[in-house]
Amino acid sequence: MAERINFYDQIKRNKIKSVLLIFSIFIVFMVLGYVISYGFGPDYFFLIMIIAIVMSILYVLIGYYKSDKIALNSVGAKPASNTAHRQFYNSVEGLCLASGMPMPKLYVMENEQINAFATGRDPKRGVICVTTGALKKLNKQELEGVLAHELSHIANYDIRFMTLVAVMVGMIAIFSQLFLRSLRFGGGNDKENRGNAILMLVGVVLAIVAPLIVKLVQLAISRKREYAADASAVKFTRYTKGLIGAFNKIKNEQPSEQTKKNVNKAIAPLFISDPFKRKISGLFSTHPDINDRIRILERM
């Protein structure tokens, strides 16, 4: 018999792994910066770094403060009605009372697939959106499991955390592009460049590879936050079978034409499961394998 998993331990492990992964992005940035500064000089490095930081922060902050509106508008979500969507309201209200969370704004999007997402940069500005398919196909316990998962993302400040990750990933991508483009103009001192030809070559390789590496790390962090939200949902509900039942129904669905037309792939990572059901390997996926999520939940 498989060893039982304590949901508190599961939450803690995935949060620690998330922090270690984001630290690895910082290490990649420092190694890349060191090599470039050694080959071109520290002044050149700091100039590129400042430009990259400013550009990435400005770009991501716009998305950060408008993330809820961008996500909701992109899927055509409408505010939920406390009469037409009574069970939705009651379930979230009960979970919020039990967890001490403020009530998020509730939205519904027209889609026959079972899915949901959360957004909002902090609990006071939280938003939960569910599909009409989820409201129709899930029973009370299954819907509560899904809603508890989404509420967990808000409680864990996952939007804020993933924004920080996006800033760092964007910074490295911009930094690398600026460095590679600058080579065309022979940046830095020619004598120093010739003397550090090997380091320059390493710098070029790192500038090409680093964005891919940190993108993979970003995807890994996204998967860890999903595992943590699954465990936090169990902490909120003290019941695993609801979320397990929802996942079993989700995994048997196929992406609808409505999803392909109306859901922007840029916001797919926000959903509890990939709405496009893309058959891609674990390293390149935004979500953990749904069967793995079910197996872990069954051991809690």
From the alpha-carbon coordinates, what is the Rg to the nearest angstrom? 22 Å
Mean pLDDT: 84
Tally of helical runs = 11
Question: Structural class given helices, strands, pairing?
Answer: mainly alpha
Order of helices and strands: HHEHEEEHHHHHHHH
- The strand order across the widest sheet is 1-2-4-3
Question: How many domains make up the coordinates?
Answer: 1
The count of DSSP E runs of length 2 or more, i.e. the number of strands, is 4
Unreliable residue runs? 187-191
Main beta sheet: strand number and arrangement? 4 strands, mixed
- What gap, in angstroms, lies between the N and C termini? 13 Å
Instruction: Name the beta content range.
Output: 5-15%
Write down the overall geometry: elongated
Residue share in helices? 55-70%
Please describe what this structure looks like.
The protein is mainly alpha-helical. The chain has one domain (7-76, 156-298). Helix content is 67%, strand content 5%. It has 11 helices and 4 strands. It has helices spanning 7-40, 42-74, 86-99, 132-137, 140-155, 158-182, 190-195, 197-237, 241-251, 257-262, 290-298, and strands at residues 78-79, 105-109, 116-119, 127-131. It has a 4-stranded mixed sheet with strand order 1-2-4-3, sandwiched between helices. A hairpin with a 7-residue loop joins strand 3 and strand 4 (127-131). Helix 1 crosses helix 2, helix 1 runs antiparallel to helix 8 (197-237) and helix 5 (140-155) crosses helix 8. The longest helix has 41 residues, at 197-237. The protein is elongated and about 65 Å long. The protein starts with 6 loop residues before the first helix and ends with a helix. Residues 187-191 have low confidence and may be disordered.
